[in-house]
Structures are given as C-alpha cells and as structure tokens.
C-alpha cells in the first residue's frame, strides 16, 4: 500500500525553503567581506607605518652625507626634504609624479611637519608624525571606522660626523 503523504508535503516544504539560500549567502558574504576588509585595512596601516619609519631613517641618513660645516638650519631643511621625498616615493600619497606627491604631503602634514632635534652636537633625532585617520590608505567603513589609528609615528636617531 502506497501513501501520497510525501508527495503532498513536498510542494509545501519547498515553498517554506524559498529564499533561504539568499539569506545564507548574505550572512556568509558579510562575514567574509568583513574579514577580507579587515586584512586589507590592517595591511594598509602596516604599510603606511613602514613607509613613515623608512622616511625617518632616510632623513637621519642625510646626516652621514652632509659635510660637518653645514649649519643646523640647513641640515634641518635637508633632513625634512629627504623625509618628504622618501614619503613621496611610497604609495601613501595620491598622484603619479613624485613632485605632486611631495606637494600633497607638505600640505597634508603642515600641522605636524617632520621634527628634527639637534640637542646633542653629536646626535640627530628625526621624528615623523603622519595623520592617518585624515588620510587613510583604505577608506573606513561607516560603522567600524573608529578603530583606525589617528596618527602614525616614526623615529630615527643618527650620530653626526665629527668635523
């Protein structure tokens, strides 16, 4: 004896399941998207931090190539120029030409220019502060943009050659 019960329940069950795949896709996609976005945003912060640290090192490296007779103001200007040129060589500033990138960096870092400290006659300290929250590499999402660091900081110390 054969019953029709499973045949009658089949259309009703498929009607109840309609749209479940779309809901599952939306939930899984949002989790995967947030994971991939988090990896990209963290990578962007890490890249900019490395570029800033490298620019501070490049600025401090100028001390080795400057002659010992350079005035402190001239040395500070050379170091700041080297920092801006190093940042312009990275991908943190928009544009294609390094000169355009350097102008962009000078205007966006006007409040916190590279700081050069010549307190000890034999030592130079270069500090670079970059306003990352104002100029992020990966744009923040509306609801979770608060975890992005406000500033990124790089520092390098070099010994001045004796004249």
Structure report:
The chain has 163 residues and is mainly alpha-helical. It has one domain. 53% of the residues lie in helices and 12% in strands. The protein has four helices and three strands. The chain has helices at residues 5-16, 20-65, 72-89, 98-108; strands spanning 115-117, 123-130, 152-159. The chain has a three-stranded antiparallel β-sheet with strand order 1-2-3, covered by helices on one side. Helix 2 (20-65) packs antiparallel against helix 3 and helix 3 crosses helix 4 (98-108). The radius of gyration is 28 Å and the shape is elongated.
Annotate the secondary structure layout:
Layout: H1 5-16, H2 20-65, H3 72-89, H4 98-108, E1 115-117, E2 123-130, E3 152-159
Antiparallel strand pairs: 1-2, 2-3
Tally of helical segments: 4
Structural class: mainly alpha
How many E strands? 3
So what's the overall shape?
Answer: elongated
What is the gist of this entry?
The chain is 53% helix and 12% strand. The protein has helices spanning 5-16, 20-65, 72-89, 98-108; strands at residues 115-117, 123-130, 152-159.
Features:
mainly alpha, 4 helices, 3 strands, 53% helix, elongated
